[in-house]
Amino acid sequence: MTAPTSAPTNVGGKAGDSEPLLSLRGLRTHFVRGRETLPAVEGVSFDLAPGRALAIVGESGSGKTVTVRSLLRLLPRSARIVGGEAYFRGRDLLALSEREMRRVRGREIAMVFQNAMEAMNPTLTLERQLTEHLVWHGVCGRAEARERAIRALADVGIPEPERRIRTYPFQLSGGMRQRAMIAMAMLTEPALLIADEPTTAVDVTVQRQILDLLVKVKERGTGIILITHDLGVARYFCDDIVVMYAGRVVERAPTQDLLDDPRHPYSVGLLDSSVELGDRNRPLTPIPGSPPDLARLPEGCPFHPRCSMAERPACLSPQELLPIGEGRQVACWKVRER
Ligand SMILES: Nc1ncnc2c1ncn2[C@@H]1O[C@H](COP(=O)(O)OP(=O)(O)OP(=O)(O)O)[C@@H](O)[C@H]1O
């Protein structure tokens, strides 16, 4: 997001000491490619409380999408969840049967994507899709579903919802389609909303509208996980940030702490190369090198070959994510030693 640098941080945030809505512990998801195993997600843990928003940031290929798709168990055939637990309202999502999971997906946990066409059926009107979603999840009967669907479209700011509900997704503008997808996701009042780059494909004005909509969702008490490559978006309304690199969490911190004072050398690099947060008087500094091939990860800390602080042999040992202060954790021995 290029615009709202002056936007308030953590819009709609609440005191964050309530019981976690989601508690992810040691998630490991691997892909099998021929004879190779790709550890796309390797030991990811975080908690999310109701009414809070958590951003997952990191370069392309760092494992953000695979992490959230593992929670929903919506993975390609070649992927395997090989470890971890994901407690959501007292149940481990990773241990539910597929039948139980179908009830959770879309009803208690909803997902919005970068492109609404991925979530919506292009051959059905909004009315069919929204009402069937409600009826299928047993929220209400068909007669009430239409009323609810119209209300949901109005809630996300779609003008003339009675008329628009009769249209097909492709007849809407990109921004309207994103809103309709959010309306559909929120129909069942899910406790958790997962948003994967929801503003990447729309222009700046629409971005702001979609984010304001997500703020309202958060204020209703819904927990949000937002995947974004845009630290401006994370700053706008996320309470906490998880930084991922090569399938691992390298730092976790309250948003403002991380943006004011990133600790892990990779987080420092991400901020220094961020176009959205960039100080116009300072040149952007790209992180040297490129993300590693997951099939040939370096020994120890996967970031050490690109890290200006790296020291051998200490960085050749695996780095655990350990606390370094109130609500902060970092996976770097050197940062902790300072
Ligand atoms: N279907 C697949 N088969 C094999 N490897 C995959 C597959 N999908 C993802 N991966 C690998 O898993 C890793 C993590 O991918 P993921 O999509 O989670 O990254 P990401 O951080 O969300 O990136 P982006 O910002 O580009 O979406 C990548 O290295 C990717 O190559």
Task: Give the topology.
Elements: E1 22-33, E2 36-48, E3 53-57, H1 64-72, E4 79-88, E5 91-92, H2 98-104, E6 109-112, H3 116-119, H4 126-136, H5 142-155, H6 161-164, H7 174-186, E7 192-196, H8 204-219, E8 223-227, H9 231-237, E9 240-245, E10 248-254, H10 255-260, H11 265-272, E11 322-325, E12 328-330, H12 333-337
Parallel strand pairs: 3-8, 3-9, 6-7, 7-8
Antiparallel strand pairs: 1-2, 1-4, 4-5, 9-10, 10-12, 11-12
Helix pairs in contact: 4-5, 5-7, 7-8
Bound molecules: adenosine-5'-triphosphate (ATP).
Structure description:
This protein is α/β, with parallel strands linked by helices. The protein has a domain at 22-108 and 188-287 and 299-336: 3-Layer(aba) Sandwich (Rossmann fold), CATH 3.40.50.300. Helices cover 31% and strands 22% of the residues. The chain contains 12 helices and 12 strands. It has helices spanning 64-72, 98-104, 116-119, 126-136, 142-155, 161-164, 174-186, 204-219, 231-237, 255-260, 265-272, 333-337, and strands spanning 22-33, 36-48, 53-57, 79-88, 91-92, 109-112, 192-196, 223-227, 240-245, 248-254, 322-325, 328-330. Strands 6-7-8-3-9-10-12-11 form an 8-stranded mixed sheet, sandwiched between helices. A hairpin with a 2-residue loop joins strand 9 and strand 10. Helix 5 (142-155) crosses helix 7 (174-186) and helix 7 runs parallel beside helix 8 (204-219). The longest helix is centred in the middle third of the chain and has 16 residues, at 204-219. It is globular. The model is unreliable at 1-16 (pLDDT under 50). It binds adenosine-5'-triphosphate. The site of adenosine-5'-triphosphate has 16 residues, from strand 1, strand 2 and helix 1.
